[in-house]
Amino acid sequence: MTEEDVIVAVATPPGVGALALIRLSGPGARDVAGRVLKPAAGKSAPWKARFVRRVVAVDAAGAEIDDGIAVCYDAPRSFTGEDVVEFTGHGGVLVVQRVMEAFEAAGARAAGPGEFSQRAFLNGRMDLTEAEGIMDLIQARTDLALRAARRQMHGALREEVEALRAAAVKLTAHYEAWLDFPEEGIDPDTGRAMRARMIELAVGIASLLETAARGRILRDGLRLVIAGAPNAGKSSILNCLLGFERAIVSPEEGTTRDTVEEMLNLGGVPVRLIDTAGLRQADQGIERMGIERTQAAMTDADLVLEVVDGTRPPQSVRRVDAEPEKCLLVINKADLPSHPGWDEAEADCEACRVSCVTRHGLDALVARLRDTVVPGLSSWEDNPVAINSRHQRELERAATALRAAIDLFDGGGEPELVAEELRETLDAIGTVGGRVDAEEILGAIFGTFCIGK
After folding, report:
1. What DSSP string describes 393-405?
2. Among 66-70, 189-193, 336-340, 423-427, which stretch is predicted with the lowest mean pLDDT?
3. Could you give the residue ranges of the DSSP H alpha helices within 301-376?
């Protein structure tokens, strides 16, 4: 596998459809395409970039497989930065397979996962954050997640990372210039000014790190676990929130033995609703395993809905042991006479009363959930840029190294050690966007300070 290979892949989803698009990329993509795609109706006009041409796809023996249209894009003005040819034909499973086989017989090889985007990155058409934005766009489940992905694709996150990186380059270059070339009389910019620049960079890194939780929620969904005693109405709550019958509902206890998951769009934020087995002492192996999964789900939850039967005394049905700030009490069966013990309990914990039969209180519950799980949503709309787990890991590495540099600087540590930590900071920030260039520091030193003239 080399960058000189011509790669080919089906760019549309697998299965039967009206159309299928097959993409080729690499030096020689036109030559490979020309062996398979022949001008329709005897026309022999040469390939012209960005113009649609009618073609017939043939196999190695010259037999026709399909007909459709083709467009070519010349390097570097293409998605990958290489010569690209796209053929759009009919979307049958067999016909697509035969056309793919013809391209491979003509000299192309099947592309690996993400290889088109990887080539776009290697050819400077995008940085890593923009490439990751493509996958976020494809997997977006809500309009808010979609807008965040589009902003990342168009460089919003790249701009913020590049601003941090530029500051880190300037800081590292200045410090190393003073350290390595003392005879040039460069202002060391140490003391308060140097420390202030370090702190400013640390604040910028911390600000971007604060978006990690938002990014996790937009990409993976907020985990909302529905838990409680058996027969409290947990599955009914799940069905009511979703608006369709997802889980089996029965008056028989222990109907739900395993977790049931479904996605819900809650105010623009994807929420992963998880219905669980009823919490009680269980002797049977299967039911006990289900309750263990319930406990594990609550541990990983962002919010737990504790559903209780309002017709029974509070002390007999409260089973959830979770942190108060991530637990919301839902008193179900409001269409039936309530046990008097709930009057005081409801006031203490600000519970929501609902009825899955009459749908009483469900709108209020949804509003309460929206206010609880997506506080500050308006600020997300203004600045939906959010880092993912890889960005978080590298930025945390940068923050740790920068903190070490500041501590060494404050404690009078060896200047070489300070410089080493600053380089580590720069390396970690650069890794976020896929830019790690040791020569850039030298360029900044010689370009900014004109050492040696």
Report:
1. HHHHHHHHHHHHH
2. 189-193
3. 314-317, 341-349, 362-373
Name the token pair of 443. 């360029």
Name which CATH class applies to 156-211+387-449. mainly alpha
Q: In terms of pTM, does the model score above 0.85?
A: no
Q: Which amino acid is at 409?
A: F
What type of residue sits at position 90?
Answer: H
- 256, 282 contact by CB (below 8 A): no
DSSP secondary structure, 201-261, as one string = HHHHHHHHHTTHHHHHHHHH-EEEEEEESTTSSHHHHHHHHHTS--S---SSTT---S-EE
User: Locate tokens 């003073």: which residue?
Assistant: 178
**Structure-block tokens of residue 46:** 């040469």
Token output for 287: 């039911």
Q: How many residues does the chain have?
A: 453
Q: Where are the domains of the chain?
A: 7-122, 156-211+387-449, 218-378
Distances (CA, A) of 257 to 51, 248, 350: 58, 11, 30
Beta bridge partner(s), residue 269: 266
Q: Which of 98, 111, 106, 120 is nearest to 31 (CA)?
A: 106
Which CATH fold would you assign to the domain 7-122? Gyrase A; domain 2 (3.30.1360)
Q: For the domain bounded by 218-378, which CATH number is listed? A: 3.40.50.300
One-character DSSP codes across 15-82: S-EEEEEEEEESTTHHHHHHHHEEEGGG--PPP-TT--EEEEEE-TT--EEEEEEEEEE-TTSSSSSS
Side-by-side strand order, sheet with 84-91? 37-39, 53-58, 64-73, 84-91, 17-25, 7-10, 109-110
**What angle (nearest 5°) sits at the alpha carbon of residue 437, between those of residues 433 and 205?**
45
Q: Is there a contact between 426 and 438 (Cβ–Cβ < 8 Å)?
A: no
For residue 128, give both structure tokens: 């890593």
Q: 393-440 pLDDT, tens per residue?
A: 999 999 999 999 999 988 888 889 999 999 999 999 998 887 766 555
Domain 7-122 matches domain 218-378 at the CATH topology level: no
* Residue range 60-75, pLDDT digits in tens: 999 999 999 999 999 9
d(CA 434, CA 413): 31
